[in-house]
Amino acid sequence: AQSVTQPDIHITVSEGASLELRCNYSYGATPYLFWYVQSPGQGLQLLLKYFSGDTLVQGIKGFEAEFKRSQSSFNLRKPSVHWSDAAEYFCAVDAGGTSYGKLTFGQGTILTVHP
Amino acid sequence: KAGVTQTPRYLIKTRGQQVTLSCSPISGHRSVSWYQQTPGQGLQFLFEYFSETQRNKGNFPGRFSGRQFSNSRSEMNVSTLELGDSALYLCASSREGAGELFFGEGSRLTVL
Question: Which of A77, A93, B5, B40 makes the best surface tag, with the fewest CB within 10 Å?
Answer without folding.
Answer: B40
